[in-house]
Specification:
Blueprint lengths: L14 H10 L2 H17 L1 H20 L2 H4 L7 H31 L1 H7 L5 H22 L12 H28 L3 H17 L12 H9 L1 H14 L6 H23 L4
Helix pairs in contact: 2-7, 3-5, 5-7, 5-8, 5-9, 5-11, 7-8, 7-12, 8-11, 8-12, 11-12
Length: 272
C-alpha cells in the first residue's frame, strides 16, 4: 500500500524577508531603549512624587474649588468630571518630559552611538515612544489611587479600560514629544517649546470644561487637539460617559501616533 500522506511543511520566512523585517524593526534594540527609560523613571523617583503632587494640586484647586460655582455636569459632580482631566494632565507632562532625554542623549553622545549602531533608525523613535507611554501609564496608575477623593468609583473593568485609554493617549503625546525633541537642538529651547505647547494643549482639550455648546472656533481647536481624544477616551471608560465614542477616540489617537512616528523616523535619518 502506497502512503500518499505528505508531511505538511510550515511555511518559513525566507532570508530576504527576515532581512527586510530586521532592517525596519529591531525588537531587541527597542526593548533596550524602553528598559533604559523605565530604569531612569525608577531611579528618578522625584518625577513620580512631582506628578502626584501636581495632580493633587490641580484636583483640589479645580475640582473642589470650582465645585460650587459650576455645579454638576452631565450628572457628575465637577470633581468627578475633572478627575479624568487630571490624569490627562499627568500624561501630557510626563509624556513630553520623557522626550527631553533625546536632547540629553544628543549632547552627551548616546544618540550618535545609537545612530551608528547596526540598527534601524526606527529603533530609537519607537523605543522612546513606548518608554514615554509606559512611564506615563505608571504615573496614571498612581493617580487612580486618589479616585475616591473625587467620588469616582473604581472597578476592575474601568481601571483596566482606563489604563488602556491612558496608554493610547500617552503614546500619542510621547510620539509628538519625540518629534519636538528631534527638531530642537539644545535643552533650553526644548523647555521653552514644551511650556508653550503643554498649557494650550491641556486647556483646550475639554479636560476642565465640557465641550458641548462651545463656540465654533473653539470646537475647531478642540477637534485639532490630539489630547481632546485622549481626555474623551479616559473620561468615557472611567466614568461610563459617552462610551460609544471611545473606539473613535482611540482610533484617532492611534492614527496620530502613526503619523508622528513616520515624521520622527524621517527626521532621525537626517541626524548627523
Amino acid at each position: 500500500m502506497i502512503n500518499t500522506t505528505q508531511p505538511v511543511s510550515t511555511p518559513q520566512a525566507s532570508p530576504v524577508q527576515r532581512s527586510v523585517v530586521a532592517s525596519l524593526i529591531d525588537l531587541e534594540g527597542i526593548a533596550m531603549i524602553w528598559r533604559r527609560d523605565m530604569v531612569r523613571l525608577w531611579r528618578q523617583r522625584s518625577r513620580l512624587l512631582g506628578a502626584v503632587a501636581r495632580a493633587l494640586v490641580w484636583l483640589f484647586a479645580l475640582g473642589f474649588g470650582l465645585r460650587g460655582s459650576l455645579g454638576s455636569i452631565a450628572g457628575f459632580s465637577y470633581e468627578q468630571f475633572v478627575f479624568p482631566g487630571v490624569i490627562a494632565m499627568t500624561v501630557i507632562f510626563s509624556g513630553l518630559q520623557s522626550a527631553i532625554s533625546i536632547v540629553y542623549d544628543r549632547e552627551f553622545g548616546f544618540l550618535k552611538e545609537v545612530q551608528v549602531a547596526p540598527t534601524p533608525r526606527s529603533t530609537l523613535v519607537i523605543g522612546k515612544c513606548l518608554g514615554g507611554a509606559s512611564s506615563s501609564t505608571v504615573q496614571a496608575l498612581i493617580i487612580l489611587v486618589f479616585a475616591p477623593f473625587a467620588s469616582v468609583t473604581l472597578t476592575p473593568w474601568n481601571v483596566l479600560a482606563t489604563l488602556v485609554a491612558t496608554f493610547f493617549t500617552a503614546l500619542a503625546i510621547s510620539s509628538m514629544g519625540v518629534v519636538i525633541a528631534m527638531w530642537i537642538t539644545d535643552f533650553e529651547n526644548f523647555g521653552t517649546i514644551q511650556n508653550f505647547i503643554t498649557l494650550p494643549l491641556y486647556m483646550f482639550s475639554g479636560a476642565i470644561f465640557p465641550t458641548r455648546q462651545v463656540p465654533p472656533w473653539l470646537h475647531t481647536v478642540l477637534a485639532l487637539n490630539p489630547l481632546t481624544y485622549g481626555v474623551n477616551a479616559i473620561r468615557g471608560v472611567l466614568l461610563n460617559y459617552e462610551l460609544s465614542s471611545v473606539p473613535f477616540n482611540l482610533a484617532v489617537l492611534l492614527a496620530f501616533t502613526v503619523v508622528m512616528l513616520i515624521v520622527a523616523i524621517a527626521m532621525s535619518r537626517k541626524e548627523v
